[in-house]
Write a structure and sequence with these properties.
With about 140 residues, this protein is of the alpha+beta class. It is built from 6 helices and 3 strands, in the order ααβααββαα. The chain has a 3-stranded antiparallel β-sheet with strand order 1-3-2.
């Protein structure tokens, strides 16, 4: 298991170093990174797998508990898990015969931050009381 620390990207600091999709055009490198993760989530099986892994109370789940939830072969489930891992969404650890998977929240946080609209001043988003009323 790697001991490297993951850097959370996509969170604008005070200096605004990492613009999100909705505030500035993405550079090519950032677009490629985000697209890889979003593409991995573009399949219903992978989305369900990620949800199953992320929703575990202990933070991880054995592959032996994931496979029976699908009407797919074990190699197909392993392929989907490999793609999620390559996209940086999950990590795994082998323990004896079984592999345990866990979510990498830094990546999901990065995806969420990329699509989060910047907060506007309250008065800029308020709808006047007369806007929807008929005269």
């Amino acid at each position: 298991m790697s001991k490297q620390e993951l850097v959370v990207l996509g969170r604008d600091g005070a200096d605004g170093c990492c613009p999100d999709v909705l505030t500035a055009p993405l550079d090519e490198e950032r677009a490629v990174g985000l697209a890889k993760a979003f593409k991995a989530l573009g399949d219903p099986v992978r989305l369900r797998l990620l949800s199953m892994i992320a929703s575990q109370a202990g933070g991880e789940i054995c592959v032996c508990d994931l496979t029976p939830a699908f009407e797919l072969s074990q190699p197909t489930i392993s392929h989907h898990l490999k793609l999620l891992k390559q996209a940086g969404l999950i990590d795994s650890e082998r323990r004896g015969t079984w592999v345990y998977y866990r979510l990498l929240p830094a990546t999901t946080d990065k995806l969420a931050a990329a699509l989060t609209r910047p907060t506007a001043p309250a008065d800029a988003t308020a709808v006047p009381a007369t806007a929807g009323s008929a005269s």
